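Schema walkthrough. Field components (list of strings):
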Amino acid sequence: MSEPRPLGGKIVTVPFLFFSALAVLAVILIIKRFFLGLGAVTNLSDGYPWGIWIAYDVVVGTAIACGGYAMALLVYIFNKGEFHPLVRPALLASAFGYTLAGVSIFFDVGRYWQAYNLFLPWYSQLNSVMFEVAFCITLYIFVLWIEFSPSVMERLKATGMKKTMDRIMFVFIAIGVLLPTMHQSSLGTLMVITGKKLSPLWQTPLIPLLALISAITMGYAIVIFESIMSAVSFRREIETPILSKLSAFIPPLIGAYLVVRFGDLVVRGSLGEAFSGGLKGIMFLIENLLYVVPLVILVSKDNRKSPQKLFIAAFSMLLAGAVYRFDLFLVGFNPGEGWHYFPSFSETLITVGLISLEIAGYLYFVKKFPVLPGAEHA
Amino acid sequence: MDIKRRDFLKVVAGSGLLLAAGESPAGAIARPPRTMPDEAVGLMYDSTICVGCKVCQKACKVSNNMPPEHTQRPPEMIDALWDNPADLSEYTLNIIKAYKNGNAEVKNREDNGFAFIQRHCMHCVDPACVSACPVSALQKNPKTGVVTYSKNACIGCRYCQMACPFGIPKFEWDKAFPQIRKCQFCDHKFAEGGYPACAQSCPTGATIFGPARDLLAEAKKRLTLKADSYYDYPVQRIDSGNRVKQKVASYVTRVYGEKEVGGTQFIMLAGVPFGRLGLPDLGDRPDAALSEGIQHTLYKGMIAPAAVLAGLMYAAYRSTKNDK
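Field assembly_structure (string):
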C-alpha cells in the first residue's frame, strides 16, 4: 500500500451526471421552501415538528459520517498506525456528511437568517441540549476540513504550508475526537426532554451512551462499506487484510451496546413493550436484529476475511444505527392523538438530492485529490 | 488481530457497570426541580362553571391581534368537539373545546354528559420549552413566572415543540418568515396593570386571574365543597370582590397542574376526568430536570471536556510524531 494519490480519469461520467441531476432537483425544491415556507414542501406539523431532515440528514447523516472520528480514535488516540491508509477517505466522507448536515439544518430551521444567534453570548442558552449539539457540529465541520486540508495542499504543491499543518495537526485531531464524542451522545440526549411522548422502548437516561456507542460502530462500518464500494466501482483491489483487522473492533462494541440496550429495558421493566405487536414493537425488533447480524458475522475470524461477509456485516450495522435513530426520533415519538407524519415527496427528494450531492462530490474529490491509497497496479 | 474472548467479556462487563451507574434512580442524575417564584401569577379554569360561550377565545384574539380561523375538516372529525377551529394553532392561542359523550344530557358528567375545557400555555414552573431553547427565545420571567417568547432570538428550530408535554408552541408552517406562537399570559398588558384577556372577559368566573398560590388555595377549597350546595365564585380576578353565586357541581378530586411536570401556573378543575378532556397524564417530575442533569453531569461546567482534550492532544501528538 503506497501513499494516497488522485485516481484521475473522467469527471463527467454517467453516475456523476445522475447524482448531480438529483441534486439540482433538490435545490429547486429548497428554493420553493424559502419562498413559501416549510409547510409548502414538507408534511411537518405542530405534532411532528421534526421529520426526515432532522432524523435522516442530521442524526443518521452525521452518524454515518463518523468514519473520520472512528478512524482518528483508532489511529491517533490508540496509536494503531497500520490503519493509516483508511484515514483520508474516511475524513473526506465525514467532511461531506457533516457539511451537508449543516446545510440541512440551515434550511430546516424556520428563522435561518438569524441562525447566528446561537453564537451570540447573550442568546446562548447553556442548559439546552440543542445548543450543545449545534455549537459542536458547527465547530466540527471546520475541524474536519482542516483535518482534510493536507490532501488539498499536496495537490496544490504547497509544501511549506503542509509542513506547518502537519506539525500542528495533533491539536485538530484531538479536538476532532472530542467534539463528536460530545455531540454524537448529545444528539441522542435531545430526546430525553420529550419525556412521555417517546415510547419507553427508547426513552431512557442512557440514550447518550447508546447513541455514542452506535455512532462509533457506524463509523467503522462506513469505512469498511466505502472502502469495498470504491474498490468495486473504481475496479481496484479490495483492501481485505486491513478491513478484516478493522472489523474485529466491531463485535465488542455491538456487544456492549446490546448489553446496555437490553439491560436498561429489563431494569426499567419495559421489555414487554417490544412484543406487544404494533409498529413500535416490530421496529424495535428489526432494529436490534440488524445489530445482531454484524455481531454474529464478525465474531468469526474466517468471516472477517471474506469481503462479501464484511460488506454484509457493515451494511447491516449501518442500517441498525439508522433504524435506531429513526425509531428514536420518529417511530417511537407520539405527540398525542390526531397527529401523523410521513415525509412528503418533495421532502424526501430534498434528502435524496443531498445524498446525491455528497456522492457526486466524493467522486470528484477522489479523482482530483490524493485521497485513496494508490494501489500497486494502478 | 483476533478478539480474545477475555477482552470481549471485559467490554461487556464494563458496559454492565456503566448500565448500573446509569440506572441509579433518575432523580440522582436530574437537577433539583425549579420552584415557583414567590410573586408568581396564575390562571385558574373551572370547567364545571364554564358555559362554553367562547368569549375568552375572542378576547384572546383581540388582545393578541390574531385573525379569525376556520378549520377545514370533515364534519365527522369535529363531531366530538363542535368547536371551530378544532384546536390551538398559530392563530388561536386560547381555545374552549367541548367534550360530549353519548346523548350528552347532563353537564359535567362523564357518561351521557358534556363538559368544556380551556387550553392554552400552562406556564410550567419548570418549563421544558425554556430548557430546550438553544437561544433563550423562550424565557420564564423570574418574578411573575410567565413564559414569554422573543422572535428576535428564535432561530425556528422547533425543539420547544418537541419538548412541550402539552403541545402548546405552534409554528407558522405556511410563512416564508415564520415564528413560534403561544399564549404569553397577555404579558403586554401587565405594564398598564392589566391581566390576561381570557380572565378579564369571562362572565361566569370559569377563568380567573390571581397570585398562583392563592389560586391553588381556592382550587383546593372548591374540592371540599358539597355538590349541589351554593358557592360565591369570584369573577375575573380572585381578589376582584365581584362574585357570582352558583350551584356547585361534583368535582373530580384533582387539581390539574398542581403537580404535573413539577407544577404549572395555569391550573384546572373539572367534573369529568382530565384524560377525557384531552389532557395528558404526566408524571410529577419535570423532564427538563433530567435532561439538564444528564448534560451537566457529563460536562461538569466544561472541566471534563477540557481534561479529556488535554489527554487526547497528548495521545495525538505522540502518534503523529511516530509517523515521521
